[in-house]
Design a protein that fits this description.
The structure is a single chain. By secondary structure, the protein is α+β, with helices and mostly antiparallel strands. The chain folds into two domains: about 150 residues, Jelly Rolls; about 90 residues, Orthogonal Bundle (Arc Repressor Mutant, subunit A). The protein is built from nine helices and ten strands. Strands 1, 2, 3, 4, 5 and 6 form a six-stranded antiparallel beta sheet that branches. Strands 7-8-10-9 form a four-stranded antiparallel beta sheet. The radius of gyration is 20 Å and the shape is elongated. It starts with a helix and ends in a 9-residue tail after the last helix. About 30% of the residues are buried. The C terminus is likely disordered.
Length: about 250
């Protein structure tokens, strides 16, 4: 039993060493987290926590993906962020003890490491970790403000084009005379990410397809005219300023 516990702690430490929040930190801190963390397996659609739950643990996604979701009064969903493997969920818990301000749901099977609040002092006494937690929260805040601007001030075509450009930067690939983007697995997820109904989302994709701006093969969307697509996203503005990395052409 002791050997199993030791092996589990070492496996957790290897996961921590690859996490942006924990990598490069002292071994004693990583050992503390690995030794005291517990593992939880989530089914597809299962909640890690709900909005207004106590912030009584920090979670690290070891495998799978977690969506941060807000729900409207009529049950509509808005996906406000995606937490990938290696990332932590709600770093705010390290900085204050207020209740959660979103719901965290697994998309597909997921495994997370949980560290309860009673083990936080070793983390909050490490300046580098606190600096990283603040930097991560600042990045999430900037993304949230950008998302708020897009959702509230722009029509669906612009919202959808901006979202697709953002995932193109993160994981898209250049193709001959175009760019390819992997869409979320279902239109329901994509609709929740751009705050639209599925019928309106589908109608917008069909409009682009009929015009030749995009083509689609299963869940791969090919953008055939990247400059025109950026104009759709930024309403004809100077997108070189709006998207400084988006000027790269495919090889």
């Amino acid at each position: 039993m002791t050997l199993d516990r030791s092996a589990n702690a070492r496996a957790r430490q290897l996961i921590l060493e690859q996490s942006p929040l924990f990598q490069g930190l002292p071994d004693t801190l990583l050992e503390h987290v690995a030794r005291n963390a517990t593992e939880r397996t989530l089914r597809d659609g299962q909640a890690l926590f709900l909005k207004n739950d106590p912030s009584d643990f920090l979670a690290l996604v070891a495998r799978g993906r977690i969506y941060k979701i807000l729900y409207g009064p009529d049950g509509q969903e808005l996906i406000v962020d995606t937490i990938e493997a290696g990332e932590t969920v709600d770093e705010t818990a390290l900085l204050d003890a207020k209740d959660r301000n979103f719901t965290a749901i697994a998309y597909g099977p997921a495994r997370v490491l949980l560290l309860s609040r009673r083990h936080f002092p070793a983390l909050t006494s490490e300046p580098v970790l606190l600096e990283r937690a603040h930097a991560t929260l600042c990045l999430r805040l900037r993304k949230a403000v950008d998302s708020l601007e897009t959702m509230c001030l722009h029509r669906l075509e612009s919202r959808l084009a901006r979202y697709l450009l953002s995932i193109m930067h993160d994981g898209g690939r250049a193709a001959v005379d175009g760019f390819e983007v992997a869409l979320p697995p279902t239109q329901s997820i994509l609709a929740a990410m751009v705050n639209a109904s599925r019928p309106k989302l589908n109608a917008q994709l069909q409009t682009w397809h009929r015009s030749g701006l995009v083509s689609r093969r299963r869940n791969i969307l090919r953008i055939n005219d990247i400059d025109q697509f950026r104009c759709k996203a930024y309403l004809g503005r100077d997108f070189a300023r709006a998207e400084p990395r988006a000027r790269a052409k495919p090889n």
